UniProtKB/TrEMBL annotation:
It comes from the Bacteria. PANTHER family: HYDROLASE ALPHA/BETA FOLD FAMILY, PEROXISOMAL MEMBRANE PROTEIN LPX1. GO terms for molecular function: hydrolase activity. InterPro entries: AB_hydrolase_1, AB_hydrolase_fold, Carboxylesterase_BioH. Keywords: Hydrolase. Residues 21-237 form the AB hydrolase-1 domain. This is Alpha/beta hydrolase.
Length: 252
C-alpha cells in the first residue's frame, strides 16, 4: 500500500530484471484484469511486472469528486517512485489507461522507455463532435449507474462523466513525445461494436496517432473485441516482448 495525496493505493510487484513492465487496466477495472497476463509475461521476459489499483478500485481507497487524469498520473508516478522505479518503464495501457499513459509519457519521457497501448483512448479521437456523441451515448449508462453508486465500476463511471467534456477537450491537444516508442494495438470490433461509424473513428484515431510521430507501430487485433487482453492475450504478450527487446537499440 502506497500513500499519495492523502489516499492509499495497492501496488502488486512481481520481482524481475531489466525494464519494468507496468500493466494499467481500463475504466472500471482493477489489477485483477491482468491476472492471467502477469505470470505469462514474467515467465517470458523475466522482467519486473507491476500492476496496481487506481483510486476507488480494487484495494485502493476512494477519492471523492470528478475523476482527474492528473491525479491518476500522480498516483502512478508516486507509486513507481516509492517502489524505486525511476526509469526504463514500459507501459501497457488498456482503454482509459491510455490517457494516463499519454500524460505520464509527455511529462516524464525519461521515465517511460516505451508503451504498448492496447485499444487505448488516444487524443486524435476527441474532436468536439465526437465528445458530444460519446456524452450522449454514455448518458443512459451513467443514469443507470447513479441508481447504485456504491459499486466501484458505477462510481468510476459517474466520476468520469462529471469531468468528461473539459478533460477530453484538453486531451485532444496533448501530444505523445517523439522520443518514446509506442505500439498501438487496435481491436477489430473496438468499444463501439454496435456503431460502425464510431468504430471507424476509433480505428482512424489509432492510425492518426501512429502517423503523427516516429517510433510508432499500428497493430490490428483481428476478430477481437475491445478486451484484447482477454481475447488475444498471445498478441499482447508478443508486442510487449518486442517492445522490451527493442529497449537499448539505437533509434533512427
Amino acid at each position: 500500500m502506497i500513500e499519495n495525496n492523502g489516499h492509499r493505493l495497492a501496488f502488486h510487484v512481481t520481482k524481475g530484471h531489466g525494464p519494468t513492465i507496468v500493466l494499467d487496466a481500463g475504466g472500471g477495472e482493477d489489477s485483477s484484469y491482468w491476472k492471467g497476463m502477469v505470470r505469462k509475461l514474467h515467465a517470458a521476459t523475466g522482467a519486473k511486472v507491476i500492476t496496481y489499483d487506481r483510486a476507488g478500485l480494487g484495494e485502493s481507497e476512494v477519492v471523492p469528486g470528478p475523476w482527474e487524469v492528473g491525479s491518476a498520473v500522480s498516483d502512478l508516478k508516486t507509486g513507481l517512485r516509492k517502489l524505486g522505479v525511476t526509469r526504463d518503464v514500459i507501459l501497457v495501457s488498456h482503454s482509459q489507461a491510455g490517457e494516463i499513459a499519454t500524460y505520464l509519457a509527455k511529462e516524464n519521457p525519461k521515465l517511460v522507455s516505451g508503451a504498448v497501448l492496447v485499444d487505448a483512448s488516444l487524443p486524435p479521437l476527441y474532436t468536439d463532435e465526437v465528445i458530444a456523441r460519446l456524452v450522449a451515448a454514455n448518458q443512459p449508462a451513467v443514469d443507470a449507474a447513479k441508481k447504485d453508486p456504491s459499486k466501484p465500476k458505477n462510481r468510476q463511471l459517474i466520476s468520469t462523466a462529471e469531468s468528461y467534456i473539459p478533460m477530453h477537450k484538453a486531451y485532444h491537444q496533448v501530444s505523445w513525445p517523439d522520443t518514446v516508442p509506442a505500439t498501438a494495438i487496435v481491436s477489430e470490433k473496438t468499444p463501439f461494436a454496435g456503431s460502425p461509424e464510431d468504430a471507424q473513428r476509433w480505428r482512424d484515431a489509432a492510425a492518426t496517432f501512429v502517423g503523427k510521430g516516429p517510433h510508432r507501430t499500428l497493430v490490428t487485433a483481428k476478430g477481437s473485441s475491445h478486451d484484447i487482453p482477454k481475447d488475444r492475450p498471445a498478441l499482447v504478450l508478443k508486442e510487449i516482448k518486442k517492445m522490451r527487446a527493442a529497449q537499448g537499440q539505437p533509434r533512427h
